[in-house]
Amino acid sequence: MIELPPDARARGRRLAIASHPAGMTHRLVYTDQLPTLTLVALGASEAIVGLQNAFEPFLQLLQLPTLRLVGRFSKRSILIAGQIIAVLAGLPLLAFGLLTTLPAPWGLTLTLASLLVTAAGITVSDTAWFPLLRAYIEPERTGHFFGILRSVWHFTLIAYFIGAQHWLTLHPGSFGALFAVATACGVLRIVLIAPLPEPPTEQREYTRIREALALLRHEAPLRRYLLGVGLCGGARRAVLPFVIVLMRRTLGFSDADVLITTLAFFAGGFISLYLWGRAVDRFGPLPIFTLNAVGLASLYLSLLALTFATHAVALMAVFFFSLNILVAGFGVADTHVLFGLTPIHAPTRYLVVADVATSLVYGIAPFVAGLGLDAAVTAGVPSLLAYRTLFFIAALMTLLSLVPLRRVHASHAPT
Asked: Among candidates 64, 40, 60, 63, which has minimal Cα distance to 50?
């Protein structure tokens, strides 16, 4: 692959930063906390909530067959095609009010189908996104770039959820309008990513699936990295949806109350991401991993203090605010190490394998957590005890993530 000239790399960075807020708004509204609230409104069980939260990470497996298309089509065209699929698949949720009137189980089934295909389109788009970014980034400023990139979309999500919380306060259960705004953001992203520069190639980068998977056998630093981020990220993926279910079903929070905590979550990321990016570039990723893993484990353990009498929106907002400060720092360090492990001239197979491997863990975690919670409650275990057990296991997983991450050789991560 021929490297882009400096002016094209700079243009790519500007377009990436401009397009990413719209893309992440569309993505997170259709894959993160809002779908959990819609499923609870439709009467879904914990197992169904866990299944839906597993859609996006499990579907990252689609990146492996999509990887073969990288040799036949430009990365930009794959990026756009995936985004178009995601936007079209999400359209049924604009009529969420109608879905709630359908006889069971059709409303829930159609909602799940829409969320599933939307996540599939997002996954196809993901296959090309990070390889394109890899061509724009100056290695010595990786943390700085991702700090800015993520700060901007966090700010956008804050604005979105301020509006969403106000809307649900006035119109409880009216999720269709919120999905409509997200769909408009998805369309805007298509417009903004269309002119992204792509490095010219004398020959397309063909990658066989088995060659990509062979990296897991031959690259010990990559294996350690994947194990570490998988443990920490899997714990977070298991905790987040079920904290929301706990707030709605057990602690009596309204949808609008939950969105206040969601707003606090993105505020925590917004105020900290740029500083984390600078810190990772200056001190390296290991101190950041350590600080944030210990902090995350402590936060999960703090959830053990929740009782049936807990209905403090401010308290849960502080929890989510603090949580995303720590998640943001861990994520910037994570990306810093991954890009250090990735060769600039052939990044696609490394980035796709890393995404697929971690996503499998991210998918298994909420799915197994949902099945476990359902089974425990069915067996007569008090619901709070079942949730507390989940939070304790998540804290332990997070601390264990430091064992492999400390062994990722320093020479494989830029400083």
From this structure: 40
Residue 347 has pLDDT above 50, yes or no: yes
Q: In the prediction, which pLDDT does 217 show?
A: 77
Q: Is residue 233 domain-resident? A: yes
Q: Please state whether the peptide bond connecting residue 221 to the residue before it is cis, i.e. omega within 30 degrees of 0.
A: no
Residue ranges making up the domain that contains 347: 6-412
Q: What is the pTM of this model?
A: 0.79
> What is the spatial distance between Cα 314 and Cα 194, in angstroms, rounded to a whole number?
42
Please give the DSSP secondary-structure letter assigned to residue 95. G
Residue 382 phi/psi, 5-degree rounding, is -55, 135
How far is CA 197 from each of CA 71, 75, 256, rounded to the nearest angstrom?
A: 17, 10, 41
Residues 67 and 61: their CA atoms lie apart, in Å, by 10
Alpha-carbon dihedral 59, 62, 63, 64, rounded to 10 degrees? 130
Alpha carbon 137 to chain centroid distance? Answer: 21
Is omega for the bond preceding 287 within 30 degrees of 0, making it cis?
no
Residue 52 structure tokens: 């839906």
Is 1 inside a domain boundary? no
**Does a structural domain hold residue 178?**
yes
Report the domain count for the chain: 1
* Cα dihedral 24/29/30/34 (nearest 10): 150
Structure tokens at 162: 């301020």
The stretch 259-270 carries a mean pLDDT of: 92
- Burial annotation 170-188 (CB, 10 A radius, 16+ → b, else e): eeeeebbbbbbbbbebbeb
Decide: helix, strand or coil at residue 302. helix
> Helix H segments across 246-303?
255-283, 285-302
Contact 36, 28 (CB under 8 A): no
Residue 18 counted as domain residue: yes
Q: What is the distance between the alpha carbons of residues 190 and 188, in angstroms, rounded to a whole number?
A: 5
Taking the C-alpha atoms of residue 320 and residue 267, their distance in angstroms, rounded to an integer, is 9
Sort 18 into a burial class: Cβ within 10 Å, 0-12 / 13-18 / 19+: middle
pLDDT at 339: 82
Average pLDDT of the segment spanning 71-97 = 94
Torsion of CA 119, 123, 124, 127, to 10 degrees: 170
136: CATH: 1.20.1250.20
412: which 2 tokens? 């494989």
